[in-house]
Amino acid sequence: MEPVTETFESRKKHVCVKGEGLSIPVCDKASLPGTVTQRTCVYGGARIVLMPITDSIHLVHGPIGCAACTWDIRGSKTSREDIYKKGCSTNLQEKDIIFGGEKKLYETIIELNKLYKPGAVFVYATCVAGIIGDDIKAVCKKAEGITGCRVIPVQSEGFQNHNKTKGHWIGGDALLDYVIGTKEPEETTPFDINIVGEFNVAGDLWGIKPLLEEMGVNIISTLTGDSHVDEIAQAHRAKLNIVQCQKSSNYVAKKMEKKYGIPFIKVNFFGLEQTVASLRDVADFFGDEEMIERTERIIESGLKEVSHKIEEYKKRLTGKTVALYVGGNKAWSLVRPFEELGMDVMMSGTKNGIREDYEMIKEAVRDGTIIVDDANSAELTRLLKEHRPNLLISGAKEKYISLKLGIPFCDFNHDRITAFAGFRGFVSFAKEVDASVSSPVFELTSKSLRGD
Amino acid sequence: MSMNLIEKDRVATINPLKTCQPLGAMWAVTGISRAVPLVHGSQGCSAFVRYCLSRHFREPSEIAVTSLHEDAAVFGGRKNLVEGIQNVAIRLKPDFIGVITTCSSEIIGDDVIGFIKTAKGELKEKIGEEAVEKIKIIPISTPSFVETHLKGYDNTIKALADYVAEPSQPNEKINIIPGMVNPGDIREIKHMLRLMDIESIVLADISDPFDAPLRPSTTEYKPYYPKGGTTVDEIVDSANSVGTISLTKYAGSGALSLEKKYNVPAELGPIPIGVRNTDQFLRNLKKLTGQDIPDSILDERGLLIDSMADVASRYLFDKTVAIYGDPEITSGIARFVGELGMEPKLVLTGSKSQEFVKDIEKVAKETGAEIDTMIDQDLRSMEVYLKDNPVDLMIGGSDARLMAKENDIPLVRVGYPVYDRVGYHRRPIVGYNGGIQLMDLITNTVLEKYYEPEHWKLQQ
């Protein structure tokens, strides 16, 4: 079989087409050294999971760059404190590398606690912290003893693994080991839930939370969007976990099921169909007749409010093609919402997919769809040039690659600024997709004065 | 009057005003034609920098990485680097590969020079000796735990002087080391050189690679290599130039190296921001090349001074300013706002530079202002300072935007990074033209904030 696009021999099997052969690309392998990989590191994976905890200080133990390049870049919104947005670092210097950075880390934690009185201090280990062998666990324990503030080690050395998914798990482990189960709720209800894997990017949580509350469930905590550490500490009392980002957070949900017997269901609030199905699944789980009735009313009014607003966008978008190169969860969960807009997903891929992610993608897409794993920027460029989708959905690093090729782009990464979840979120989503695809500038990008 | 140095009274770094060396190196290598920056480190080291550069320039940022993982931390990164170099060479057929180290590869003590040799040896068997010799593969040491991104930039330019420049026949060119300034600034410098009829070699020229045209793609390699950048031949030829002007005295090692090794006279700084600094730049050019300063440049100078006369005393005089960012841009702007009659109340940089302190002392003497100076500091220090000492205006990058909002102080965006406004990387702040641009920006910001719209018909 012909490879989908020209690339390194060892990369050929990372790109496949559904319906031909296995339909699942080779995945979860180390990136080829010397390529412009779109991947990031384990530290990055842990940080994006934990950073939305708004009342906490996120302290990066390493040289300045790891903190300087990542502070306040996650578009997780807050309804309360915003100390999570501070860029905190131990700023390790040469002498710390030689003599160790533990003392500096300790003093930094003490200072930060004094300045901000945070709900917790999360201490992230970087590559350097790992290599010089700083015992961040011991330092955190000592600092916690002195400050009385939760000081939580996150063993997220960047080079640990090629897959930042490992970082998601490490972030989850920090919560499981040091936070969840450390505080009892004052009261509980039969309908207590946690929303897991919802990071309130651009305010997504606020499109979901009111729907659930109107249904009559009680949200103990969100892991981790717009959350306080104290709320997550009580998460073990929930009757149900609903998991939104199944890429980052199935891990935590599974572990909570094992440790606390909390069942979980997978939900998805992107797109109307998936929003409706998710609300029904939650109501069905509790089986409460009144809740089920209320849920149907919420669904009816939600659909009524937005359905006609979608139509105008759909008119312009029908028949257009879209390529997804996104985090694992979105690589399959966005397929239906695009179909609801009349669009065809012609390619879907992820940077850090594991086999179960690609199983999900394979299920979601139609035959003939290109499925791609860890495409480096040259491959991505080539795929876009060869197949010219009407839209690429991806993140900031891919944005300008796409635009340079004259291919419309829409951000669906953690730095977007528009909320897309729930009924109203879907209208915003349709509007933003339309604004990208239908912008007249893209008629100019393919025209040359010389007519060549 | 005087300069007061305010020391940092904290161990913690909160809201950093600097980043690490590799970023500066990736920035500089991007300014070389058909070059690939190859970061020898963890994937995050390239991913986050690419993200930050893309956000600032609104351009793709193509930076390869050797993807070090745990086995490399234990056994060294030899395999990854040797394989990485070969993959870059075979696939992208570059003219230049800059091997940029990181904290991890520095600490584990990888023998980068040795690994490059090994990679070249193996490559010769695969693509032939001639093809390998065509590619310059240069080690750039950028330990992240030493100094800042500006040092990484400096080390890169020095590596070009040390590993690439070769003396042959003298040329009539001038070398320019622009420092970490924007495409618009480099273009303005080149514009002045054209008016002076001077040919130049810019080490290294990011102006096109980080501000590239979108044209229908017709060639195979587009957009793997953006338009422009300094060619390797030009860098080789830099050993033969009549002089080097580094627009930054804080990153002039490359200029000094060319002077020491090849007798190319070096002038370090100042960055031509404002009238006096630009005058100095032109005098340096004249001194090194013997070219006269033409009328066209005197006209540009006159236009700037004319514009300053129009507005400086009326709207800007005595307005207090907090200026933060990289040392040369910050000190250049401090001097310029002094020329405008404004008072630089606070100047702040993340670098730990005594040279900077001296520069600000000089500005204090010239302007008669009392300037509070902070080196090796972060934005938290500025936040604390501004609570007690509010100023009329802030000048610096986007990272202080929330602070500006909270304190109700208008912010004029300059330098790196600026990600919450568009066009700032295209607009120069250097030279007389850049001075006009910057002064207009400052003045309009002051007008917007401090002047009532209903007064306007009276207030010319």
TrEMBL record, chain A:
<protein>
    <recommendedName>
        <fullName>Nitrogenase iron-molybdenum cofactor biosynthesis protein NifE</fullName>
    </recommendedName>
</protein>
<dbReference type="GO" id="GO:0016163">
    <property type="term" value="F:nitrogenase activity"/>
</dbReference>
<dbReference type="GO" id="GO:0065003">
    <property type="term" value="P:protein-containing complex assembly"/>
</dbReference>
<dbReference type="InterPro" id="IPR000318">
    <property type="entry name" value="Nase_comp1_CS"/>
</dbReference>
<comment type="similarity">
    <text>Belongs to the NifD/NifK/NifE/NifN family.</text>
</comment>
<feature type="domain" description="Nitrogenase/oxidoreductase component 1">
    <location>
        <begin position="41"/>
        <end position="436"/>
    </location>
</feature>
<dbReference type="InterPro" id="IPR000510">
    <property type="entry name" value="Nase/OxRdtase_comp1"/>
</dbReference>
<keyword id="KW-0535">Nitrogen fixation</keyword>
<comment type="function">
    <text>This protein may play a role in the biosynthesis of the prosthetic group of nitrogenase (FeMo cofactor).</text>
</comment>
<comment type="pathway">
    <text>Cofactor biosynthesis; Fe-Mo cofactor biosynthesis.</text>
</comment>
<dbReference type="InterPro" id="IPR049939">
    <property type="entry name" value="NifE-like"/>
</dbReference>
<dbReference type="Pfam" id="PF00148">
    <property type="entry name" value="Oxidored_nitro"/>
</dbReference>
<dbReference type="InterPro" id="IPR005973">
    <property type="entry name" value="NifE"/>
</dbReference>
UniProtKB/TrEMBL annotation, chain B:
<dbReference type="Pfam" id="PF00148">
    <property type="entry name" value="Oxidored_nitro"/>
</dbReference>
<feature type="domain" description="Nitrogenase/oxidoreductase component 1">
    <location>
        <begin position="20"/>
        <end position="446"/>
    </location>
</feature>
<dbReference type="InterPro" id="IPR000510">
    <property type="entry name" value="Nase/OxRdtase_comp1"/>
</dbReference>
<keyword id="KW-0535">Nitrogen fixation</keyword>
<protein>
    <submittedName>
        <fullName>Nitrogenase molybdenum-iron protein subunit beta</fullName>
    </submittedName>
</protein>
<dbReference type="InterPro" id="IPR000318">
    <property type="entry name" value="Nase_comp1_CS"/>
</dbReference>
<comment type="similarity">
    <text>Belongs to the NifD/NifK/NifE/NifN family.</text>
</comment>
<dbReference type="InterPro" id="IPR050152">
    <property type="entry name" value="ChlB/BchB/BchZ"/>
</dbReference>
<dbReference type="GO" id="GO:0016163">
    <property type="term" value="F:nitrogenase activity"/>
</dbReference>
